[in-house]
Write a structure and sequence with these properties.
98 residues, mainly beta, N-terminal domain of TfIIb, four-stranded antiparallel β-sheet, 31% strand
Length: 98
């Protein structure tokens, strides 16, 4: 596979032999990429309806309580990830630990 090493002089070169070919004109093929719709892994807004509260400080507003939910996001021998949502209705910041 040929690559372009960069710098002032533009050329294709091979990494395994001394082959070099100068780039004489620029060719562009613009691509419009479409993003996929992704699922909310936490279950959306309904996932926070029946969760417990705990005494933890919000990193954004310093409120002393937050809702939390725990998920096993990695392999079984790794600790769970705890997702928090601030109880302060004006803040509603979200963060995670683990």
């Amino acid at each position: 596979m040929l690559h372009i090493p960069g710098g002032d002089e533009m050329y294709f070169c091979c990494k395994s032999c001394p082959y070099r070919h100068p780039i004489q004109n620029e060719v562009r093929f613009p691509l419009k990429l479409e993003t996929k719709q992704i699922d909310d892994i936490l279950g959306g807004a309904e996932a926070w309806d029946n969760v417990d509260k705990t005494q933890v400080t919000c990193p954004k507003c310093k409120h002393g309580e937050a809702f939390f939910v725990e998920f096993q996001t990695r392999s079984a021998d790794e600790p769970s990830t705890i997702f928090y949502k601030c109880c302060n209705m004006r803040c509603q910041a979200r963060w995670k630990e683990g």
